[in-house]
Amino acid sequence: MKHWFITTDGNLKARWKKAFPEMVASKPDVFVGKTQPDDVIWLSTTVEGWSELIGAVTSKGAIVVVLSYSPDDREALRSLDLGARGYVHTLAAPEVLKQVALVVTNQGVWVGQELLAKVLGGSFKALQQRAEGGDTVNTAPLEGLTDRERGVALAVVRGATNKEVARQLDITERTVKAHLSAIFKKLAVRDRLQLILKLASIVERVPERF
After folding, report:
1. Contact at 8 Å (CB) between 78 and 55?
2. What is the CA radius of gyration of the chain?
3. Where is average pLDDT lowest: 66-70, 101-105, 113-117, 129-133?
4. Rounded mean pLDDT of 46-56?
5. Alpha-carbon distance 16 to 18, whole Å?
6. Rounded mean pLDDT of the chain?
7. pLDDT digits (tens, 9 = 90+) for 129-157
8. 3-state SS of 130-199?
9. What is 3-116's CATH number, 3.40.50.970, 3.20.20.70, 3.40.50.2300, 2.160.10.10?
10. How far apart are CA 101 and CA 115, in angstroms?
């Protein structure tokens, strides 16, 4: 797995090198044909056509993290919608970059705590309003999953890590990851955040042992 930092001039920053000593800096017209599945592509929004590059890279199985000098919630959500797994300040500290890499390479999403709180807060607010209205919960999204996949999906949406899910269900972390891959495909979601948003209106009204 390589870490590619894509900028307009192909120059690297000392903090990137400190975070990932073996990283590769590249111009946008050079790296696409060289990436491998599971490589992490750190893509600067200063690159012309950066949003179009996200799809080109993720179609090859690589992971994209968008770098911005002026982080913006709308831009962050757009990046995720296009397939990026992360969105972070271009000048983030090496320690932060390492944390981002750890999260996105383990099927997680990084958008920063403030935006994540807004997204999940809005989702659960809608859930609360629906519950207070007495609407019948629609569990249709869960019906296409196996019993074990439902257990994994609901545990993840309730906030469990892969390790915690494995412990709760008495299975290995590798099995949890395999189930998550199947769940993402069946529910047409890309990652944990999209899974949470898709099932947020269900999880609080579904028994723990559904």
Report:
1. no
2. 18
3. 129-133
4. 92
5. 5
6. 82
7. 555 554 444 567 788 899 999 999 988 88
8. HHHCCCCCCCHHHHCCCHHHHHHHHHHHCCCCHHHHHHHHCCCHHHHHHHHHHHHHHHCCCCHHHHHHHH
9. 3.40.50.2300
10. 18
For residue 127, what pLDDT is reported?
Answer: 47
Q: What is the DSSP letter of 6?
A: E
For 43, 91, 105, 185, the CA distances from 64, given in Å and listed in that order, are: 7, 17, 10, 19
Q: Tokens for 124? A: 């659960």
Residue tagged 């001039």 (tokens): 9
Distances (CA, A) of 138 to 126, 130, 200, 209: 14, 11, 11, 17
DSSP tag of 110: B
CA distances from 152 to 89, 175, 188 (A): 32, 10, 16
| pLDDT 10s digits, 73-92 | 888 888 888 889 999 999 99
> What token pair was written down for 94?
């090496």
Architecture of domain 134-204: Orthogonal Bundle (1.10)
Q: Write down the pTM of the prediction.
A: 0.61
The two beta strands, 86-89 and 63-68, are parallel
